[in-house]
Amino acid sequence: MTNVSYHISNLLEKMTSTDKDFRFMATNDLMMELQKDSIKLDEDSEKKVVKMLLKLLEDKNGEVQNLAVKCLGPLVSKVKEYQVETIVDTLCTNMLSDKEQLRDISSIGLKTVISELPPASTGSTMTANVCKKITAQLTGAIGKQEDVSVQLEALDILSDMLSRLGATLYSFHSSILNCLLPQLTSPRLAVRKRAIIALGHLVLTCNGNIFSELMEHLLAELKRNESTSTTRTYIQCIAGISRQAGHRIGEHLEKIIPLIVQYCNVEDDELREYCFQAFESFVRRCPKEIGPHIPSVMGLCLEYITYDPNYNYDNEEEEEEEEMMETGNGEDEEQESDDEYSDDDDISWKVRRSAAKCLEAIVSTRHDLLQDFYKNLSPVLISRFKEREENVKADIFCAYISLLKQTLPIQSWLHASDSAGKEDIPLTMLQNQVPNIIKALHKQLKEKSIKSRQGCFSLLTELANVLPGCLADHIPALVPGIVFSLADKSSSSNMRIDTLSFLHVLLCNHQPEVFHLHIKTLVPPVVTCIGDPFYKITSEALLVTQQLVKVIRPLDKPGAFDVKPYVKDLFSGTLKRLKAADIDQEVKERAISCMGQIICNLGDHLSSDLQSTLKIFLDRLKNEITRLTTVKAVTLIASSPLKIDLRPILGEGFPILASFLRKNQRALKLSTLTALDILIKNYSDSLKPAMIESVLTELPALISENDMHVSQVAIVFLTTLAKVYPSSLSKISGSVLSEIFQLVHSPLLQGGALNAIIDFFQALVITKTANMGYTELMKQLTGPIYSLSSAGPSVTLHKQAYYSVAKCVAALSIACPKEAAGVVNQFIQDVKSPKSSSAVKMLAFLSLAEMGRTMNLSAQKELKMVILEAFASPSEEVKSAASYALGNISVGNLKEYLPFMLKEIGSQPRRQYLLLHSLKEVISSSPADGLKPYVEDIWALLFKHCECAEEGTRNVVSECLGKLTLVNPSQLLPRLKKQLSSGSPHARSTVVTAIKFTISDQPQPIDRLLKGCIGDFLKTLQDPDLNVRRVALAMFNSAAHNKPSLIRDLLNTVLPHLYNETKIRRELIREVEMGPFKHTVDDGLDVRKAAFECMYTLLESCLDRLDIYEYLNHVEDGLKDHYDIRMLTFIMLARLSTLCPNAVLQRLERLIEPLRATCSTKVKAGSVKQEFEKQDELKRSAMRAVAALLTIPEVEKSPVMAEFSSQIRANPEMASLFESIQKDSASLSTTESMEMS
């Protein structure tokens, strides 16, 4: 301890030296000491150090002063509170000194101290006390100071303090406000500006009364309109407040907007600029409140975006026609007029720029007005592309690009709007305006100004992305501009990169033929860019070249275009980059891909160069960094219809590819398997058995349930091998096959991987390879299931495995029809035998089902009886397998089985449920034409059962009805609709559920009819019966998820009823006595849950049709509801944070409370384990929502959020939960990006 004191007193002594260098070094050493965490000062040293540093602030030497100020930062956290107060007092006094240098250094000192104060959430009282001291002094200084520079510094420090520690100063807020308001009329504009910034920080944390006082003052002053200069300031102030705390200004907008609209008409350009800036901040910050005023604001913007009083654009139009005939004469006239009015005085461009920015804000926030924008706004913006001020032009381009971006997402429901009038669709309107856009832009592509050209290219790139193919007729107008920017010596590298990336988009989105006339002019500048020394230009040019090659010679259609003259240039340019070893990684990869494309499309023109180039590919395969790209390029070349000769590299290349299959890089394995597959298909005659064996030894390790996709691709490769190279199959070691059989018995097998295995078995059985014939394969497939019965119940297979085995059995039987009959008999005997275990019976029925679907089993006379007997089996699994079998066998032979099934349904009430399931299989799997003759009978039968009391049966009936309606919608849909008026709630719920089964995510003939009548079915949302409302919500949810176009236009009428179902109904809550306990049951819970699920689905599919504020009201209620619903609303809140952050910000205070309540609840000590788990899950979910809220930009400005996050940090349990959630989301995003690579 004494050691430190001694060292420090030594330094302090040196600081009094007359030599400035000593003073400097000693202060520097002190700084080093203070920055150590371990240093502790005793009281005496503290006093001396503080006194010394304050003295050094007045040192004659500037450098020493600067160092002394820097020492204050670390010192604050090392000394006691009263010492910090001493420092602050001295600094504040010095601020008011007459010496300018001392004032400056003191204000820097104060800023340093404020930035080092611990935040209030740490619980330290020091911060609050010190801030109060500073604030009192500063407000005094601002109020009575004559010297402007002191005022400016004081305002600056006050802003700093309010932004960092605003909430700590709440007791001073009112005095700060009273001190700041008079400064808005200060004669110095800089003072006004800083006062506005300080007010912006104040409104974030002040309470409602102070905010209202401030707004009333501003409104009163705006109405008084004393002088234009103060009015400007007040409008700037309102815009500043709105930018910082938009959610609070919303309620005052009604009064503010008319005033600002009125000031737009005053002849003062600066005032107008500030008015538009205010409008822009309102549009971005209070989207709901500004809604009604959008038309008038937009009208003003459109009027003033063309406001250029001192320039006559008409001359230009004439000049274009005369092609600038007169030269010398015109210049003299200009000289004379210059004296009267200089361009520097003209600030009308500021008005135009702020109007353009405001329009961009409107376009990007009001998706729903898109058609209106294309009608009124788009033509005006296009006419302003000729703007003469570069900055304004950039903003006009930005606004238009924003409009194009808004148009993109609509393409998903394009096919649904065919029935609407063609003209209204934004894309059609845009299509009609393309010629005007090109007319306005194509001349600018050759202007000197790089900024304008870049703007034009970004706009055209966006246009080509939004409407692929729309520029086809305008290519001749665009090519000269593209070539000009690529070849122009004065172009910056960014200019060239932008031009190349536009050219790439253009080539990708248009038909090859439209470019063929221009290839001659396009190729030379692109080849020059490949040789550019700057790697980014090279890499962009290689991308373009790759696309150009596809355009010059598209392989999918015969072209009359002569490619010969261009092959040499493109090839040699790319080859130079392919050979270079010392270039950027991205360029290497793109050179490989580009060369791959050249060989694939133009390989027949390369003659002698081909071999040497392929050798380079071989080298690139051996290099770890480039191998993946090379594998993809080789795949491309191998699949080329030009039949490129790859023999020179196959011998050495095949083993290298085989070795890639053991590398621990998933993307490489997948690409390699695809490459091998193509090579075996197209080059089987050039491959030697040894090459193929090298690959086969690697395969067993790839086939496992841990990675279904890799397994699938590996099995597809084996199938190709079986078809192309059957002799190699004898080499398939038992291990590959046993892995495949293991996969068949895995519960995870389904979809693509299962289909791949089925194809493989079919291909394998046809090759008639030894030990792999029909009987051997069948034994391996079904063996485990037969052995189960003898081995006892210890080994069990998952239910999914039985379905997989049955599908494979059926596939093998179809491939070997001769063997099939025997197998069918065997299965029927299995089912009849009383000794068979239920597993064997289940497999037999499922296999009969899969075989019956494609073969006619009518020869088996006893089959029907066998199935009906099985319906009485004690095992549920066997019953459902038998019902599945009956359905599928009927599909293979409708004539014989369907009438039998309908008769049984009518006469066997006890087996109805199983028989209806069979009927469902028939309706789902049979072709519509086959079913048509039976529709009436089935329909009549189903309607008999639609009022069944058993809900399970009703659901099967609905599914049958729905799927049957798809067979003949125009006749059957009206019948369903008629049934809506039925008196029985059961019948109504069956009909509504049937509609749910008619909606699928693929376009279907019924869609048009459904769109016309779905509104009638949705009226059941108001049905008196609770259950009917629940199924109506499920149907609505299905429509919103699978075909939003059906319900988009009905939302205005449907939403109120949907929201109505989210409310808790007291009359549906009842108490049930369970022995000594009372238990509450809420019958309305399922309906509420269904309603919230619908709300969540609407977020994804119809966001632009929702009033998000109304929506949030109901989310807010859900946050306080039952466990299940809170879980749902937390997920909704997280989604809303990314979809519409501004709206969530405005409601933050109300949304945080329920989250805080959930995170801080404690479970009663004696509760059951489930209760603890449930509460944990809730807290995790709530924390996820909090983490999502924290990603909203500017959320940290909200005092409520700041307080909550400090509460989370302070509570160890919440803090650890929050950290684990953040880790989860971080690992999620990295795995996603890894999957992509």
Automatic annotation (TrEMBL):
Keyword Acetylation: yes
Stated name of the protein: Cullin associated and neddylation dissociated 2 (putative)
Pfam families: HEAT_EZ, TIP120, TPR_CAND1
HEAT repeats (start-end): 49-86
Entry's localization field: Nucleus
GO biological process: SCF complex assembly
Domain spans labelled TATA-binding protein interacting (TIP20): 1046-1208
Protein's organism: Crocodylus porosus (Saltwater crocodile)
Keyword terms of this UniProt record: Acetylation, Nucleus, Repeat, Ubl conjugation pathway
Family: Belongs to the CAND family.
Region (Disordered): 316-345
PROSITE patterns registered for this protein in UniProt: HEAT_REPEAT
Principal subcellular localization: nucleus
A GO cellular component annotation in the UniProt record: cytosol
